[in-house]
Specification:
Number of domains of chain A: 2
Largest sheet of chain B: 8 strands, mixed
Largest sheet of chain A: 8 strands, mixed
Number of helices of chain A: 13
Structural class of chain B: alpha/beta
Structural class of chain A: alpha/beta
CATH topology of chain B: Rossmann fold
CATH topology of the largest domain in chain A: Rossmann fold
Largest interface: A-B, 45 and 42 residues
CATH architecture of chain B: 3-Layer(aba) Sandwich
Distance between the termini of chain A: 53 Å
Strand content of chain B: 15-25%
Strand content of chain A: 15-25%
Order of helices and strands of chain A: EHEHEHEHEEHEHEHEEHHEEHEEHEHEH
Number of helices of chain B: 11
CATH class of chain B: Alpha Beta
Shape of chain B: globular
Radius of gyration of chain B: 20 Å
Helix content of chain A: 25-40%
Helix content of chain B: 25-40%
Number of domains of chain B: 1
CATH class of the largest domain in chain A: Alpha Beta
CATH superfamily of chain B: Thiamin diphosphate (ThDP)-binding fold, Pyr/PP domains
Chains: A alpha/beta (379), B alpha/beta (308), C alpha+beta (83)
Order of helices and strands of chain B: HHEHEHEHHEEEHEHEHHEEH
Shape of chain A: globular
Oligomer: heterotrimer
Chain lengths: 379, 308, 83
Amino acid sequence: MPTPAFMHGNQAVAEGAIAAGCRFYAGYPITPSSEIAEILSERLPQVGGVFIQMEDEIASMAAIVGASLGGLKTATATSGPGFSLMQENLGFAVISEIPCVVINVQRVGPSTGLPTRAAQGDVMQARWGTHGDHPIIVLSPSSVQECFDLTVRAFNLAERFRTPVVLLSDAIVSALREKLVIPDAADIAIFNRTQPTVAPDDYKPYEFLHGDVAPLPRFGDGYRFHVTGLVHTELGYPTEDAEIISRWWEHMSSKIEDNLDVILDWEEIELDDAEVALVAYGGTARSAMHAVSLAREQGIKLGMIKIRTLWPFPEQVIRNLAGRVGTIIVPELNFGQIRLEVERLVAGRAAVRGINRADGIQISPEHILDVVRGLERVP
Amino acid sequence: MKVQTSFIVKEYLRPKMLPSTWCGGCGLGIIMGAIAQAVHFKGLDKDNVAMVSGIGCTGRMSGYMDFNTIHTTHGRAPAFATGLKMARPEMTVLTVMGDGDAMSIGGNHLIHAMRRNIGMVAIVVNNSVYGLTGGQTSPTTPIGGHTTTAQSGSFERPMNLEALARTAGAAFYARATVNHTASLTKLIERALDVSGFALVEIISNCHVLFGKMNQMAEASTMIAAMDEDTWRTNPTLLRRAHLPIRLTSPESPSAPVHALTEMDDVEDESRTWRGVIFERKGSVDLSKRYYNMLGRIREQQRAAEEMV
Amino acid sequence: MAQVTPGIYEVQVDKNFCKACGLCVAWCPQDVLAEDDERYPFALHLEKCINCKLCERHCPDFAIEIIAPSEVLMIEDILAEGA
């Protein structure tokens, strides 16, 4: 029987991790993510897993990559300042194609900012935070249920595409308590990294497959491969050969770009007859959804798209939206990180407006509705 | 039948990756050979050995050795290795770092790996200089040593890794040089026997950069100096050094570590000893303690289930 | 101590690996080795070699090897086991 439960977002993330098969967590305390570590420090030993509190976020990120090579599903959780420290080894996980999950519960501002208040200022850090071009997958939950579901999905995508996956939570959903339903373990789809079937001598740990990844055995299974942060050949040895490097880049981008049908995740709400559409994600999507129902009560044709996979960005979805509505409004707790992306894709075919603040106060449904009404007055 | 040393060593290398990118005469190759022999003489299965290295000339070693290997980011090797060891406690983990790697950018990770007493053999190759980036000052450059970022001689006090390891809680500390190859191998073998964090500091040569700037441009000159500048530990007197090595400057001031070590029996306080410097008895590896705890939790769970 | 018979050993240098650093020549206690014009080592006085392996142990590139007759290896084997 699926179990109804009542918990806060961070707890749902922790339970989602356990359900997904996460058996290793390394982290460093930081508000507003610390509950994830606290809960996992109790839950992981109960299921035979490892919890370790590291000396900083750099080490936390390093430890989950090391443990992932040991064959475990691994995760760490942090907030913006810690996420910045993780970027170095996040890049290592990208280039060495090691599955792991990084949870970032966003708070306000650069540096210490407003540690206890919600923002969505790390959208671009999640996409481009580490140095050099790189593919990445970023998911964003907007409810406690999604905290659970998307955490499971984050592990599955990490294992499937041998990549770090960022779960971009925020201080709205992390501290929010509401009902969720935890499915039976048998009903939760779990993906485990594939294992090589070839002999160790024939195994290529980084085979440059188009749109796919090589199997990944654990250390100690007899394959004795080399893992490096240097650009490498299919065997993992460093190379400076431009031809090999371009094939490597092609592999790295195609493993994400060719699987958008699996990776992308969004939801259309009241969009059929909509004249104005909201594009929202994370905690702000809650206000947006409420604004849609308030607007409908008042006869205003407002719809929305809720984005759950932020990166890769659902580009075609937004391009299509531009042909369906006259105005797109992007409410977010930053100064337009996703709005810029929407403007780029709409390319002038619809008006794009942002509702932006990052002062620790959420964008209310009424605020969104006021902006929508303001649009109506302008023909 | 007894086999040739080099034959043993080659069993543990990746031929496709060799010859190494290291300069001719670099002590790193000697160290790699010593590690291979130590692993061989301990009878360890290559599949069950992991080598985790950082960045720099030393970082390249993991690519050449036929173990499960990770060439990580600068300074972070102990943190990657901690994750791996906690996930696979049955594995032998060798963490290989240079002096800048271990003591400067990775100092925090090294301290906490020692504090946790996580089971690994940490090999710190100390050549007093940043080699790969072109001969800049490192945390162990001796006072007066010339580097590309200390053109008129370094004026900072070098790091005392030994005192750091002792206070941070390492289980074992040995110092070797690439000159004394037999004891180098033996000390790594001793470290492999330790349950917990075993550190082997290996004094190596960068004659191409550091040596050239300090009147020791030949590998042989620089390695020979290690014999003159280090003393073998006297097993009856547990003596210890203040400074990692002073290849260039005999006037190096002693580090003020009297509060941390018992110095009464040391005649020359600036000597650099080689051999086993200290070993903490009864040390137990963190990963072993953790999995023992998991076992106890499982027993409690079973007992609780039976009660129901 | 085992009896050492100089002159029964061979020196093998793998030039694909050798970087001509001069360490083996500097370390040879018997002056067996010398450098050629390109600084590669060669055995100038092979008859003096006592199979101490200091060259092997100090070669950072595993490029030099002392080849001993098999009967000598067997003696070493026995000695190693006895030790």
